[in-house]
Amino acid sequence: MIKYIDRIYTDSEIYDILDEDVGLWFRHTYRSFTPPQRYAIPYIANRKNVLVSSPTGSGKTLSAFLGIIDELVKIKKSKKLKTKVYSVYVSPLRALNNDMERNLQFILDGLSNYYPHNISIGVWTSDTESRDKTRMKKNPPHILITTPESLLLMLSSQMIDNLKDIEWFVVDEIHALADNKRGTNLAISMERLSYYRDFTRIGLSATVAPLDEVARFLVGANRECYIADVSYSKLYDIRVDTVAKDFIRDDPDEVGNKLIEYLIDRMNQERSVLIFTNTRSGAEGLGFSVQNAIRERSLNYQIGIHHSSLSREERLTVERMMKNGELKGIFSSTSLELGIDIGDISLVILLNSPKSSARALQRIGRAGHNLGQTSRGLFLATDLDVFLENLVINRMIYQRRYDTISIPKNSLDVLAQHIISVGYQPVPYTPDEFYEIVRSSYPYSDLSYDLYMKLVDTLKDGYKDMIRKKISIFNNRILSNLPRMVFYMNAGTISEDIKIPVKEVETDRYIGSLDEKYAKEIRVGDIFVLSGKPYRMVGTHRDTIIVKRVDRDKPNIPAWFSEALPLSYEIALEIEKFRKIAQSMSVQEISEYLGTEMKYAEQIKKYIEYQKTYTRGIVPDTENLLIENWYEDTKNLYLFHYVAGKRVNEAISKAYMNYIAENITEDMYVAVSDYGFIIAIPESYDLEESDLEYMIDMNRDEFLRRLKEVVFQTQRFSLKFKDVLMRMFAIISSDLRVSPLNVSNRILESMIDDRDNVFINETYNEIMNIDFRVDQAIDYMEKLRHRRRYVKSFQGPSPFALNVIYNSNSGDRLEVKDKRRFLLDLIQMLEHEDQRHNA
């Protein structure tokens, strides 16, 4: 049962709950409780499961641990404190764990001045030294800090004996785990521990929706959870800005130069700035340009670059320098979204669109991190469509409307790892016992017994002569056949892309890594930027690129593929809604609705009117479905204006392509964006109106069938299938002399006529429900059925169509002129025709 906490407790009421020494320490250290603490601490003290949702810097971490530490002090005073793990803390990042260790140690050190408690902390991650792990096995800490992956390994080792009697389990940044397989892994681990003893579960989350769903993820099936929704408890100052005066007529090069000037001016005014670029290429490219501009102006400060393809040493150096005040700003892709401690940030700038209101708020919350401070954020765009997107996101934030997460269900590859893992326990489970344990977790609450046993049988028997068996059933108990060290080295759910290491020749220092595709394109002598510095490739050694630091104004910017963030479905629908109502709004009303200046509201209004003029009265919105058709080179192009986000459009476009392919035998192409998709067929073919009507009216079952058919033939399926096989230990990379993809492709080929197996089923499950969000695609297709339909043929794309073309990042990108230049030509033509008509 899920309940919301509707009472906020007073300071005196909470002090009455706390131990006298703990209360005295808190009063002298913090003076007053924050809203999350006033809501949550009394419930945690009463051993209730609690989900705390509040912004960064609102004191939610202490709301979890104050009750735990207070209880440990009381146990200590009663002389019953044992040498055992009382509380487990899990977060998604090792860096967060290290911060948490420092923060908790600071709290415990301060408390020890009031009472000698002897409460101990330990960190167990892949970075922890073996000798420290051995020590913790013999002498476990009272509070154990870890990650989902390391927790699974502990459950597969002797360390499990130290976890059978825990009393609290804290999941930090739960929103970053619940919607992916790392969280699924954690959910099973919690249930495995709960088998020995139930414990109090505490979830800590930034602003996320729906909270009820996250609460169910935290506590599993048939348990109570109390939600402390304190998302209002932080003050925000958020603005949407641009360096463009006229989005259509400004010179693109001039806009780029203005962007650099703008960022430098902001850094000159601020104490410290965190700039999110969404992509690693963006962080490297813009960061390098700004760095050069800083040098040219002889400014006395530095900036840093931070993203996941830099070495851990590089990232830690940037984090330390920012925390110590040695950097004025950091250009980050998405890697600093979570609460890694980088010191006091005064302003967060979001370049382009964060594509999500929840993500935007999470990022902006990095500024004004300390209690009582205002978090200041700035959306910054140079493109009209992105600017409008940012205005819509900002409006949703102030209305406290957030995009929803989706929790993966019945992930067979994650479950396979746990089935193998329980085979290492001193007293293994029977298959039926473990089924009941797994079903207690929310992600597997509707797992059928037949599907579960199908997985158990596959792990027990293997698959033909290509996949060996991983478990045995002896005396009806699960025993693992997989060598324990192989499991330790390969368990987990994080898919590793093929990365090519980059090392500096003089120091042999590991700088970072490049995407395999990009690495294949560069040659000795090429110069590229990494960590904001230019390097020349001087050679290779054992699949490592060797480089030398050089000086150059314009190095190449590396490309990391598949980086684009998808627009959330909720924001996409809100943009469609705005398109509808804006047609009857005045410029003043648009300005007030979006919270933007009149000059920008006027440009937005004109943009919509240009679209309406070009398409002879049709604006794609919540009531009108527009399909554009024109010819280009040897292709007949159909552009579907579906503002539903890239994931939904990927799914729908693939089902449409499957239908079209029944009548066309030549090559076709599709390009997908957040705002629609283009299907390109040979110019000798046409799509009849009846074909388009059939596709739009496609029912749910046919949509899913066609989508599965076409997905099976894609490169995406091959890559995901490989990941699934590796997670299920069907492929063990250390055993191979060829690439895992080559092996998985051979296995997939052998399954062409036997697709109803757990490996293919799970690959479909991941693509359909995580990559594509088919539930949202089905919902959008239902909306399409009720709209007025227009198929219009033009000489070329409309103004709105250009946004689809230039932001397509899958399939074949169409070769057309620069969007801004093309749009200007189009609008000048429309204005000329309007003037001629009026004359």
Would you mind describing this structure in some detail?
The protein has 839 residues and is an alpha/beta fold. The chain is 45% helix and 16% strand. It is built from 32 helices and 26 strands. The protein has an 8-stranded parallel β-sheet, sandwiched between helices. A 6-stranded parallel β-sheet has the order 9-14-13-10-12-11, sandwiched between helices. β19 (527-530) and β20 (533-541) form a beta hairpin. α11 (252-269) crosses α12, α14 crosses α15 and α16 (412-422) packs across α18. The model is unreliable at 810-817 (pLDDT under 50).
Describe this structure in a few short sentences.
By secondary structure, the protein is α/β, with parallel strands linked by helices. The protein is 45% helix and 16% strand.
Shape, please?
globular
Radius of gyration: 28 Å
Tell me what portion of residues adopts beta-strand conformation: 15-25%
Helix segment tally:
32
Question: Low-confidence segments, ≥5 residues, pLDDT <50?
Answer: 810-817
How are the strands of the biggest sheet laid out side by side?
A: 1-8-2-7-6-3-5-4
Defining key terms:
839 residues, alpha/beta, eight-stranded parallel sheet, six-stranded parallel sheet, 26 strands, globular
Question: Could you give the topology of this structure?
Answer:
Elements: E1 2-4, H1 11-17, H2 20-29, H3 35-45, E2 50-53, H4 60-77, E3 87-90, H5 94-112, E4 121-124, H6 130-138, E5 143-146, H7 148-155, E6 168-171, H8 175-178, H9 181-194, E7 200-205, H10 211-219, E8 225-229, E9 236-242, H11 252-269, E10 273-276, H12 280-296, E11 303-306, H13 312-323, E12 329-332, E13 347-351, H14 357-364, E14 375-381, H15 384-398, H16 412-422, H17 431-439, H18 449-461, E15 471-474, E16 477-480, H19 484-490, E17 499-504, E18 510-515, H20 516-521, E19 527-530, E20 533-541, E21 544-549, H21 569-582, H22 587-594, H23 598-614, E22 624-632, E23 635-640, H24 646-660, E24 669-673, E25 676-682, H25 689-696, H26 700-711, H27 715-727, H28 740-750, H29 758-771, H30 774-785, E26 788-793, H31 799-806, H32 819-838
